[in-house]
Design goal:
This protein is 42% helix and 18% strand. Strands 1, 2, 3, 4, 5, 6, 11, 12 and 13 form a 9-stranded mixed beta sheet that branches. Strands 7-8 form a two-stranded antiparallel sheet. The chain has a two-stranded antiparallel sheet with strand order 9-10. The chain folds into 2 domains: 4-224, Alpha-Beta Complex (Spore Coat Polysaccharide Biosynthesis Protein SpsA, Chain A), CATH 3.90.550; 235-341, no CATH class. It has 342 residues and is of the alpha/beta class.
Length: 342
């Protein structure tokens, strides 16, 4: 049985595959490499089959985003191949490094309670800086806003070894997510309604609610281009981030009676963030935030059913960062993870 399956989801990403797939294969340590193609309209599939015959290609019938695409791909591997102990899901725009696999696998082997893990994520273009998508492990504040060790909002720290430890975190990035396969299928994988963005945070929250742990491994490093499928300035990305954050918060917030006050405060803060987009003249992003809120309202019946089901399954209360990172960052001037924690 293969210990690990390396699975890359691709949508019209042939340039990234040409650039980064050789390093993945060179550093796969004998583990099988899969590319799950989400009905690309470029020549990705023929390019892989011509140039990388050792790669196992899974052709998906349509583009269902990160969440639905990986659900289909990992179900296919689970059904048609020898079932691995772990999956690792590097984005197509991830540059792996020699020895990137061994430290993470050793950490997860040593602690069966670790269901998900990530390496350090540094920027491909500014290689000493931590990258936006995950940095050195992520956290969630009491209003559902996310931040990372090494990245808080637009402040990116230089990696000088301050996060080289192995430790629990709240969420591990989907840019290069290691996940225990048995547990992934046990919880039903990603929530496909998210399509893309924050589905890995929702997954990590659910994993912790049933007693598992999420870690970051400081002995492994990869580099991330970022925005390979949706650029950070794309209004659809704004829409998905705002909508999915509300989805995640409603589904997973503890049953303590404070859900709706927090949701209403979040909606107000989201609205206030529109002022920044207004100052920048980015009206399409303001419309994206409004659409995200209306999509949240429309999805409430489904979210409520999911919330009730998750509450029945829960065996462990999950702790969030007990302060507002918006207040800490913008009002108190705390720009780094260390300042936030202190």
């Amino acid at each position: 049985m293969d210990t690990l399956a390396i699975v890359i989801l691709n949508y019209n990403g042939q340039p990234f595959l040409a650039k980064f797939l050789p390093a993945v294969l060179a550093n796969a340590n004998g583990h099988p490499v899969y590319v799950a193609d989400s009905a690309s309209t470029d020549s990705s599939v023929s390019f892989i089959r011509t140039n990388f015959p050792d790669v196992r290609v899974i052709e998906l019938p349509r583009n269902e985003g990160y969440a639905g695409g990986y659900n289909r791909a990992l179900d296919f591997i689970h059904t048609h191949y020898e079932r691995p102990t772990y999956y690792v899901l590097p984005n197509s725009d991830i540059e792996v490094t020699p020895g990137w696999l061994a430290p993470v696998l050793a950490l997860m082997d040593a602690n069966p309670q670790i269901a998900a893990c990530q390496p350090k994520i540094r920027s491909y273009s500014e290689r000493n800086l931590f990258e936006h998508a995950g940095a050195a492990g992520g956290f969630v504040d009491w209003l559902g806003y996310i931040f990372c060790r090494g990245r808080v909002f637009a402040t990116f720290e230089t990696d000088h070894g301050q996060y080289d430890d192995n430790r629990p975190v709240f969420w591990a990035t989907g840019a290069c997510l290691f996940v225990r396969s048995k547990v992934f299928h046990q919880v039903g994988g990603f929530d496909a309604s998210f399509f893309a963005h924050m589905e890995e945070i929702d997954l990590c929250w659910r994993l912790q609610r049933i007693g598992y742990e999420v870690w970051t491994c400081g002995q492994s490093t990869v580099f991330h281009v970022g925005g390979g499928t949706l650029h950070k300035s794309n209004p659809h990305k704004t829409y998905l981030n705002y909508r999915n954050s509300l989805f995640m918060l409603y589904k997973n917030w503890p049953a303590d009676g404070w859900l709706w006050p927090k949701i209403l405060l979040r909606l107000m803060l989201d609205g206030a963030s529109s002022i920044l987009f207004m100052q920048l003249g980015e009206w399409s992003d303001i419309w994206a935030i409004l659409r995200a809120h209306f999509a949240f309202y429309g999805h409430l019946p489904t979210l409520h059913r999911q919330r009730k089901q998750l509450q029945k399954q829960q065996i462990k209360e999950v702790k969030l960062y007990p302060h507002s990172i918006v207040w800490q960052y913008f009002a108190k001037g705390k720009k780094t993870f260390a300042e936030m924690i202190n």
